[in-house]
Write a structure and sequence with these properties.
The protein is an alpha+beta fold and 73 residues long. Helices cover 41% and strands 11% of the residues. The longest helix has 17 residues.
């Protein structure tokens, strides 16, 4: 089924875009990237995980700092 999609962007919703992302989502023969390209859909690949964005790191650090106050002992 063709929906008129010409381009997709793969964005890792993970802290670090490591081996799993590089191989399974954007690199191997059975990756999402390869599947889209096999349907003549251009693929833009973001190569960094969420941990590369300062705002995300701030949220993580704040949650870690607040954890002792919200976790029952």
């Amino acid at each position: 089924m063709r929906l008129g999609i010409k381009t997709v962007r793969l964005i890792p919703f993970i802290l670090v875009a490591g081996t799993h992302y590089q191989e399974d989502l954007a690199g191997d023969d059975d990756s999402w990237k390869t599947a889209f390209e096999g349907r003549q859909i251009a693929v833009l690949v973001e190569t960094v995980g969420l941990g590369s964005y300062p705002g995300i790191i701030e949220v993580f650090c704040r949650r870690i700092q607040d954890a002792p106050d919200v976790i029952p002992v």
